[in-house]
Amino acid sequence: MVAVLWRDAFDGENGWTDVETYKPEETLVVTVGFLWPNCLKGYLTLVNSFMPDELPDIKTTSGPVHIPVGMVVDTWLLDMPPFPSRRFAEVGQTPGEPVRGYPRKSGKSRYATSRRRGRR
What we know:
Elements: E1 2-8, E2 27-35, E3 43-47, E4 49-50, E5 61-62, E6 65-68, E7 72-77, H1 110-118
Antiparallel strand pairs: 1-2, 1-7, 2-3, 3-6, 4-5
């Protein structure tokens, strides 16, 4: 897993722009994801999801983000969590179990409650 700080490409105002008063501002972005090495020449590619059963030879990903290498400001290598596979017992966790350290919430979400209140 990596975190990437990069300069985003942006466009200016829509319509006519006064060149004397227009002040473009650089936009920095942080993207966190799983590195997809050698996906596209000249780009650093991150994905947000993959199937752990395919490790170490991943064949399916989701949400690729292609960042031009020339726009990368900095990168950080993040610790990779131990991913469960079909062998859940090897990591001491069963499917459907809450993430360790985060208890399963019961009841309705705050969003559902606030939506209901808004309908009155």
